[in-house]
Amino acid sequence: MRLRNKPWAVKLVNEHPESVIQDPDPSKVIDWSERFADISRPLEIEVGSGKGRFITTLAERYPEKNFVALELQTTAAGIILRTKLEKKLDNLQIMRADAADIDAFFAVNSADKIYLNFSDPWPKSRHEKRRLTYKSFLQKYQTVLKDNGLLEFKTDNSGLFAYSLKSLNNFGMQFDFVSVDLHHEADEIVEQNIETEYEHKFASKGNPIYALHAKFQTKDL
Fold it and tell me: What residue stretch is flagged as signal peptide (predicted)?
């Protein structure tokens, strides 16, 4: 999702360093205890949050958890921040940074869940390494997630979904849930699902939404 630059968003982000971490130094792990009131709560991360409909809804629904929206674009961070401030979501932090450095910003075994929602499919073969389910990214997620941590992935792109299934399987991951039509699963699954902006757009046109939940093998001690 490429958004037009919005001066108000840049200004808002700059005015709230307590809520938005900008361009963090990848050589230093962030001390999240300075960002959350209770660091013992479960931590969940969305990689590529866009306008933030998904992550802000999660934070509002589960006040007993901590959430981080990892987003590269300043305008998107500003839109998320505006919602965070309006809804007073003290359990949500925003980090404007590159997902390729995720393992530099979070301690080993620190996150309970990572969400990948409607990531750029990078369809050309020469761009394979940029896909967020490529093996180098999976290695980073494995480092950050706890042993029982979960990776949740949604997309409308059948090619990316097929690639991701193969990539995760080759990495030795265990699948807890796989769907090729998420919005027509059992009622309880549909009710628990939180739509992103893209998801709502595509699903309203009758397009299938692909989803999977997977876990990594237990790390060696």
Answer: none
Query: Binding site annotation covers 156?
Result: yes
Residue 147: active-site member: no
Question: How far apart, in whole angstroms, are the C-alpha atoms of residue 20 and residue 18?
Answer: 6
Q: Is the pTM of this model over 0.90?
A: yes
E strands present in the chain: 20-22, 43-47, 66-71, 92-96, 111-117, 145-155, 174-179, 210-215
d(C-alpha 116, C-alpha 13), whole Å: 23
102 has a pLDDT exceeding 60: yes
Residue in this structure with the two tokens 């750029």, named with its chain if needed? 120
Residue 65, annotated as binding a ligand: no
- Domains of the chain with CATH codes: 20-216 (3.40.50.150)
Lowest mean pLDDT among 6-15, 38-47, 127-136: 6-15
